[in-house]
Amino acid sequence: MKKILLSLIILLTFSQGYSQTSIFNELLQKHVTKDGIVDYKSFKTNETKLDDFISYLEKTSPASSWSENKQKAFWINAYNAYTIKLILGNYPLKSIMDIKEEGKTAWKIPFAKVGGKTYTLDHIEHQILRKDFSDPKIHVGVNCASGSCPKLGNTAFTEQNVEAELTRLMKDFVNDSSRNKLSKKKVQISSIFDWFKDDFTKNGSIIDFLNKYSDTEISSKAKISFLKYDWTLNGK
Question: Residue 174 in contact with residue 218, Cβ under 8 Å?
Answer without folding.
Answer: no
